[in-house]
Amino acid sequence: MSSQTQSSPAHDAKPALPKRAQIVLSGTKPTGENLHLGNYFGALRQFVDLQDQHDTALYFIADYHSMTSLRNGAERRRNTLNVALDYLAAGLDPERAILFRQSDLPEVTELTWILTSVTPMGMLERAHAYKAAQDKGEDVDHGLFTYPVLMAADILLYGSHLVPVGRDQKQHIEMARDMAHRFNRLYECEALTLPEPYILEETATVPGTDGRKMSKSYGNTIAMFAAKNAVKKAVMGIVTDSTPVEAPKDVQQAVFEIWSLFATPEEREAMFARARAGGLGYGDVKKDLLARLMDYFEPMRARRAALEARPQEIEAVLRAGVVRARQLAMPVLEACREAAGLGPVRG
Ligand code: ADP
Ligand code: TRP
């Protein structure tokens, strides 16, 4: 399949964008208190850019998906509000993008069933998330196993063309394409549109403080909007090798990769040259990273604080969003029902 992988420096906010896609869609699970640098540079920043580049952009909060790992209603409700706040603070604009909560459109679970009936077990057994849970010997429930089908339904229900995500989600989008293709072929129709991933090469996998992929589940995150002390603790805790200050440094380390997210290409070249020459201490790089990070997110932090005081407005944004999302979803669901010989949506 053709993945639209772009190569662009992390700070370059406006990469050349593919022209033909009209509907952009993505989602984020409300599984943590606050989004982290991996979420932002891997996905959210592209959400913001793409809302201006395409006819329609839909961004939702994947609360159904969070049910495979979070079993506390109050926490889900709180996290959902937090993701909405993060979205708006980062620059998603309800005038330019449709923002909604996944469970406000329960029809997505109907499409999940429809897709389930054309999804081979083997495809789901090859899913990375399922295999990782199996390898760790975890008790896997059916929700986790069928997670890629719900995600395919999210994407296909709105006729999405382009799905901005980090690299870890690429396999899920390939599966969504497969399911759409199988449904269309089996029912001899064109009800479903085949989506493509949109993954920026430079930020496809942002490393965490321990050098592995930054992820809530690894506890190696740097949160965008945490209190300064918590951010400082995370930044100072980035694992580095034990090269002495005067020795040349290997720039292929998390500390340099994370620092580069906040630097221009020229600044990066200069920093890497200093690192290779020796005489650069990791402590100084971390201090500079902290200052740049706090500066970068300051305007968003201020916007978030202002919005936080008005939770009813957030709810109103989500409610307005789902009305518009439903207008896109119903014709697609209707076409699937028609092709499959099910009754009309309103009979
Ligand atoms: P987590 O792995 O912390 O649970 P999510 O699964 O909620 O994060 O991811 C939300 C979005 O952020 C997805 O598009 C995902 O690909 C992206 N993302 C998450 N972590 C990273 C990372 N370390 N680098 C790049 N993108 C990431
Ligand atoms: N699975 C995604 C994640 O873990 C969240 C998600 C759910 C999503 N449905 C989606 C992303 C549809 C893109 C499109 O991050």
3D structure, described in words:
This protein is mainly alpha-helical. The chain has two domains: 9-205 and 310-340, 3-Layer(aba) Sandwich (Rossmann fold); 216-306, Orthogonal Bundle (Tyrosyl-Transfer RNA Synthetase). Helices cover 52% and strands 8% of the residues. It contains 13 helices and six strands. The strands form two sheets. Strands 1-6-5 form a three-stranded parallel β-sheet. The longest helix is centred in the C-terminal third of the chain and has 30 residues, at 311-340. Mean pLDDT is 93; it is low at 5-9. The chain binds adenosine-5'-diphosphate (ADP) and tryptophan (TRP). The site of tryptophan has 13 residues, from β2 and α7.
Strand order of the largest sheet: 1-6-5
Cofactors, ions, other ligands: adenosine-5'-diphosphate, tryptophan
- Structural class based on helices, strands and sheet pairing: mainly alpha
Which superfamily, in CATH terms, is the homologous superfamily of the largest domain? HUPs
What profile does the largest beta sheet have?
Answer: 3 strands, parallel
Uncertain runs are 5-9
Q: How many strand elements?
A: 6
Overall mean pLDDT:
93
Q: Provide the helix percentage.
A: 40-55%
Identify the overall geometry.
Answer: globular
